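User: Sequence for N-acetyltransferase below. C-alpha cells please.
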Amino acid sequence: MALGYVRPARPDDAGDIAQIQLSTWRTAYRRLIPQQVLDELDADWLAARWHEAITAPPSPRHRVLIAIEQAESGSEPTAHPVGFLATGPADEAALAPDEEPLTDDVAAITDLLVEPRWGRRGHGSRLLAAGVDLWRTDGFRTAVAWAYERDPATLNFLTSTGWEPDGARRALDVDDLLVPQLRLHVDLGHEAGD
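Assistant: C-alpha cells for N-acetyltransferase:
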C-alpha cells in the first residue's frame, strides 16, 4: 500500500529536488526545450540553488515543499521524494512583458513538478493543496502560475483545480527558441486545489 504526504523541504532534500527537476524536464519538456539545453543542465548546480532556496529564502513567505511517496515493502517502510512546489510572493518573474508589478497579496508558483513516473497518484494535488493552505495563512488573496502552452499535463491539472488563464502571455527565449507560455490564476477565497 502506498501513501503520499507533503512536508517542508529540508536542506538534505536539495539533491533529490534537483534530480526530480532534471528527470521531469528531460521527460516532460523534451519536445518544448532544445535537447542541448536539457543535456547541459547540471545536477550539482541545481542542487546548490535548491539548497539556497530552502536554507536562505528571500522572505518567510517563500516556501519549498516536497511530496513523498511512502510504501510498505516487507517490514521496512520506504519513502521516495517524488515532486515539489516552490512558491513565494509574485515578483518580476511572475509578470508578463510590460506589466505593472502585481500587488503584495498575489502568490506565485515558481515550480510545481511531479516526476512523471510518480504521476497520477495525487502528489500534485497534495502539493497544491498544501500551497493553498500556506498562501491563505500568509494573507495572499490570489495566486498565479506560468505554464508552457504546449504542456497539456500542467494546463489540464491546474484548470481541473479551478485555475484559469488570466490573459497574460509571454515567450521564453531558450537557446534562440521562443517557447510560449500563458499565465493562470486562482482566487484563494475559493477551495482551489482542495
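Strands lie at 2-8, 63-73, 76-89, 106-114, 142-148, 164-174, 177-187.
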